[in-house]
Design goal:
8 helices, flat, Arc Repressor Mutant, subunit A, mainly alpha, three-stranded antiparallel beta sheet
Length: 171
């Protein structure tokens, strides 16, 4: 009678982190991107937002508008990293659902986005649902979230600078 030996396989996230622990900077960037991709995939495929009737892109737009009231569509598009046309499509859909209000900006040309009371309530419920997926036990310290945000911001700024440098050289 052979005894069964339980495999002590590490969770994928822990294995990825350990694989890159001794690596160089690019290994750490690759690990960071793999982990961000897994987190994003988990959030997009889960029922957390679907149960509320919105998608991850909808939530991102609503979050940007909550964080920056009366933001222009162009500014929201830049913050999210999508086209103005895409933001317009989403905003129109979210306005029809009663979550956003669109108004003309000060220059009478730009359209500004603001949350409706229903949109504000939806953002609060969405935030809670997403945090329940990310940290069901509530154990992601604020300090770690802020550190990850700073790291992601730094990478984004470096990539934007590289793109600007390449465009300046080409043109």
């Amino acid at each position: 009678m052979a005894s069964k030996v339980k495999s002590k396989e590490k969770p994928k996230t822990q294995a990825v982190e350990e694989d890159a622990a001794g690596g160089d900077d690019i290994s750490h960037v690759a690990t960071f991107l793999v982990l961000v991709g897994r987190i994003t995939g988990r959030l997009q495929s889960g029922a957390a937002l679907k149960d509320l009737g919105i998608t991850m892109p909808d939530w991102l737009l609503l979050r940007v508008v909550k964080d920056t009231p009366a933001i222009s569509m162009a500014s929201a598009a830049r913050r999210i990293g999508v086209s103005r046309q895409r933001v317009h499509q989403q905003a129109t859909k979210l306005e029809a659902a009663g979550f956003l209000a669109l108004s003309k900006g000060e220059d009478e040309k730009a359209r500004e986005l603001t949350l409706s009371p229903a949109g504000d309530s939806l953002v609060a419920r969405s935030d809670k649902a997403l945090m329940d997926v990310l940290a069901p036990d509530g154990k992601i310290p604020s300090k770690e979230i802020q550190s990850a945000r700073r790291s992601a911001g730094k990478i984004a700024r470096l990539l934007a600078q590289k793109k600007a440098d390449e465009e300046a050289e080409a043109g």
